[in-house]
Amino acid sequence: MAFTNGIPLSDKESVKFFIASSFVETILQAASACPDKEICGLLIGKANSVTEIRPMENKAAHPERFFEMEEADLIRSHREARERGLKVIGHYHSHPSGNCRPSHWDAALAHDGQYWLIAASNKIEGWYAGKNGVVEGIFHPCRLVVE
């Protein structure tokens, strides 16, 4: 039995998520540079593979605990991705608390079919939002394939 994010999984249950090492490094560096507030951005690509990350400004009233992106920036990012044959496949953000597990606030924002990357304490973990998730009832751990 395999373990992903500390959760036991069979190969049948695991979800693979492909991302370039340079994107992981960029996200971790941004999180380290802002240790007291959540950084955030979009994951753009096809299916389960990230071809681009787009850092976004955290507009939350309390960025030390939450992240929120400007609606106009989100709409523009979705449109630009579609124009290039891509789509926004998920989000990334950091947890200054040092925990990479999705919070109940993350679950409230999650939509089925999206990937989430959460950075904390110089590590990153992947999650997939879908029905009957093992974390907060929506998140399934992903097996990150860093290329």
From TrEMBL:
GO biological process: proteolysis
Protein name: Mov34/MPN/PAD-1 family protein
Keywords assigned: Hydrolase, Metal-binding, Metalloprotease, Protease, Zinc
Family matches, as CDD domains: MPN_like (cd08070)
Species per Swiss-Prot/TrEMBL record: Zymomonas mobilis subsp. mobilis (strain ATCC 10988 / DSM 424 / LMG 404 / NCIMB 8938 / NRRL B-806 / ZM1)
GO molecular function, one term: metalloexopeptidase activity
Gene3D superfamilies: Cytidine Deaminase, domain 2 (3.40.140.10)
Taxonomic superkingdom: Bacteria
Residue ranges annotated for the MPN domain, each copy included: 17-143
A Pfam short name: Prok-JAB
